């Protein structure tokens, strides 16, 4: 996990349309980065839909929102189209950004250990510093909590 007030690690990742998004180019307004395990799975779908439903409120507060997973650009495009998502989805196929943000962790399911993305959200302030973190996110009510934090900046 990154410390509050520390600079957010810069990155450039492709979105669902194949366009590069660079974090440092977004300075000047808040940025929400939510890391999620996999496209089109139940929890990830609910989380992405919740952020999409509040997109106009985030935009009114000057914030940009991006979901990040290790899924491919093609997978993101299919997921966004199928679920009518309005949030940006970024592909970190090599996992570099997941590691930089400390979300690539050992997980345990039914006694089996494996590596995966721990559902985590970061709020980056207009200066490019970490303003808030939400580790081990539970989806219900999460988008609303992040929106409240954005409005409080």
Description:
The chain has one domain: Glutaredoxin (3-Layer(aba) Sandwich). 29% of the residues lie in helices and 28% in strands. The protein has 5 helices and 9 strands; from the N terminus they run E-E-E-H-H-E-H-E-H-E-E-E-E-H. It has helices at residues 42-53, 55-60, 73-83, 96-100, 142-152, and strands at residues 12-14, 20-22, 31-35, 64-69, 88-91, 104-109, 112-117, 120-124, 130-134. It has a 5-stranded mixed β-sheet with strand order 5-4-3-8-9. It has a two-stranded antiparallel ribbon with strand order 1-2. Strands 6-7 form a two-stranded antiparallel ribbon.
What class, by secondary structure content? alpha/beta
What is the name of the CATH class? Alpha Beta
What's the oligomerization state?
single chain
In CATH, the homologous superfamily goes by the name Glutaredoxin
Report the count of strand segments: 9
Largest sheet entry: 5 strands, mixed
How do the strands and helices of this protein lay out in sequence?
Blueprint: E1 12-14, E2 20-22, E3 31-35, H1 42-53, H2 55-60, E4 64-69, H3 73-83, E5 88-91, H4 96-100, E6 104-109, E7 112-117, E8 120-124, E9 130-134, H5 142-152
Parallel strand pairs: 3-4, 4-5
Antiparallel strand pairs: 1-2, 3-8, 6-7, 8-9
